[in-house]
Design goal:
Elements: E1 7-18, E2 22-33, E3 37-41, H1 48-56, E4 63-68, E5 71-72, E6 80-83, H2 95-105, H3 110-123, H4 139-152, E7 157-161, H5 169-186, E8 189-193, H6 197-203, E9 206-210, E10 217-221, H7 232-237, H8 239-252
Parallel strand pairs: 3-8, 3-9, 6-7, 7-8
Antiparallel strand pairs: 1-2, 1-4, 4-5, 9-10
Helix pairs in contact: 2-3, 2-4, 3-4, 6-8
C-alpha cells in the first residue's frame, strides 16, 4: 500500500453494513491531507460518524480498508485521538484527571501527566477549573475538557464528531475561532464531522460531501478561503466563503425531502 506524499489517511473502497441489511457506507475512497482540516458533511444518516469511527479504529469496515501513516488500521492507535459529541467525560473525575486520563493509559508518570494536562487546560481556557467535576461545568466547558484531553495525548490526528453541536450559536462560533487558533500552533491533522454547511465552509481546508445512505463520496470541495489577517466576520463575508456555502447547498438540497 502506498500513500501520496500529502496524505496521512487513505480510505480505500470502504463499505459498512449493519445487521446484514442496513448499508451505511458504500465504496468510499478518499485521501485526507496531512496538517489540514477535512470535514465530512452530508444529510442525516449518510454515514459521516460511521466513517469517522472506522478511521478511528472504533468499528471495523465490512469491506475495504483504511491506512493511517502507511499502516493498515485494525483498531485504535496512539496517532489518533477522538473528540466525542457527548463529551465522554469521566463523571467521577475532576477536570485535571479527565484531561490526564489518556496519558495515564499510555503509562506516563504522574508528574508528566499533570504537567501536560495543566498546559492544555490553560490552552483551552479552563485555568482555575482543574478541581471541578463535569456536573459543575456548562456544556461548553465540558467540551473544552474533551478537546484538552484529545490534545494532551499529542496525537497526530484529531477526529472530531460534531464537537460543537450541543452548545449555543454564540459559543459555537467562539469554539470555531479558538479551534483554528489552536491548530495554527498545534499543526494537527483534523477530521471533522458536522451538519452545518456554514461551519464546514468556515473551518475546512477540504470538504467531503457524502450522499444519502448508503453514503458515498458525492463531491470533494477545496474552499480556498484566504483567512490570513481577516477577522471572523470578514471571512464570513468573503466571496469565496459565500460561494462555497452556496455550492454545498445546491448539492445537498437535492437530498432534502
Amino acid at each position: 500500500m502506498t500513500m501520496s506524499a500529502e496524505a496521512i489517511v487513505e480510505v480505500r473502497g470502504v463499505g459498512k453494513t449493519y445487521d446484514s441489511s442496513v448499508e451505511a457506507l458504500k465504496d468510499v475512497s478518499l485521501s485526507l491531507p496531512r496538517g489540514r482540516l477535512s470535514t465530512f458533511l452530508g444529510p442525516s444518516g449518510c454515514g459521516k460518524t460511521t466513517l469517522l469511527k472506522i478511521i478511528a479504529g472504533l468499528i471495523p469496515p465490512t469491506r475495504g480498508e483504511v491506512w493511517v501513516k502507511g499502516r493498515k488500521v485494525d483498531g485504535p492507535g496512539p496517532e489518533r485521538a477522538f473528540v466525542f459529541q457527548d463529551f465522554a467525560l469521566l463523571p467521577w473525575a475532576n477536570v485535571l484527571r479527565n484531561v490526564a486520563f489518556g496519558l495515564e493509559l499510555r503509562g506516563l508518570s504522574q508528574e508528566e501527566r499533570v504537567k501536560a494536562a495543566e498546559d492544555y487546560i490553560v490552552r483551552v481556557g479552563l485555568k482555575g477549573f482543574e478541581t471541578s467535576y463535569p456536573h459543575q461545568l456548562s456544556g461548553g466547558m465540558r467540551q473544552r475538557v474533551g478537546l484538552a484531553r484529545a490534545l494532551a495525548v499529542d496525537a497526530d490526528i484529531l477526529l472530531m464528531d460534531e464537537p460543537f453541536s450541543s452548545v449555543d450559536e454564540q459559543t459555537r462560533r467562539k469554539f470555531q475561532e479558538e479551534l483554528l487558533d489552536l491548530l495554527q500552533v498545534e499543526r494537527k491533522t483534523v477530521i471533522f464531522v458536522t451538519h452545518s454547511i456554514e461551519e464546514a465552509a468556515y473551518l475546512s481546508d477540504q470538504i467531503v460531501l457524502l450522499s444519502p445512505r448508503p453514503g458515498t463520496v458525492s463531491k470533494i470541495i477545496q474552499p480556498n478561503i484566504a483567512r490570513g489577517g481577516k477577522s471572523p466576520d470578514e471571512i464570513r463575508r468573503d466571496k469565496n466563503y459565500l460561494d462555497v456555502v452556496d455550492e454545498i447547498w445546491q448539492i445537498l438540497k437535492r437530498y432534502v425531502d
